[in-house]
Amino acid sequence: MTETIGVKQIWNIISRGKKILFASTFICLLISATYAFVIATPMYSNSAQILVNQTNRTTNGLADVQVDLSLVDTYTTIITSPRILNEVNHQLNGDYSIEGLTKMLRIESDASSQVIKISAVATSPKIATEIVNTVVQVFKEQVPTIMSVNNVSILSEARVMNKQKQIQPQKQMIMIVGFLAGIISGVLIVLARFFWDTTIKEPEELQAVSGLPLLGVIPHFSQDDVFEERGRKK
């Protein structure tokens, strides 16, 4: 076997291992499809937007807006605080823990905006919608007693849509990853088998290893060929 292998030889090696390549790709696709369509739990998301302004003003105009923007991070922390989430859990009949609600909630805010987006990820659109709207209402009720804020505007509430898309699992992406993983693993298996197999398969390999000239090649005969030849002689 030659010590150096070119791109053409590698391509030929992979071509001879088509069955392994197809089998590997099929198995990985099957595993990916099973996970995406059977095992993985469908997850849905819904969101609401709120706007919070201070009641007690010490400045006017643009300065007021800058003060509100500086407090957005504080509001987002309050939303996920135990005080708020305990009341949310109470209104939801104690179905969730604080840790569970924290993992389900997503709080987003733009550095240049006073709008806070509250999202929830759950196993159904109805549950996600219920959690988001409850968090918004509890925050609106509790924040005046926590800070000098009495102006929470709900810009948009979460609503259950007729045909709401899943956000997880991303089935198309999982299938693409499975397809690529199948091809890569198949190529690696074919190459590994070739490099670990030290047997001589081609006449040219024998000539390269021994350094002797090739005088002839004995053709391969199967048992059926032998019987057929004997039948002709008779």
UniProtKB/TrEMBL annotation:
This is Putative Capsular polysaccharide biosynthesis protein CapA. InterPro entries: Bact_polysacc_biosynth/exp, GNVR, LPS_length_determ_N. Residues 4-91 form the Polysaccharide chain length determinant N-terminal domain. It is a multi-pass membrane protein. GO terms for cellular component: plasma membrane. Keywords: Cell membrane, Membrane, Transmembrane, Transmembrane helix. It is found in: Cell membrane. One of its GO terms (molecular function) is protein tyrosine kinase activity.
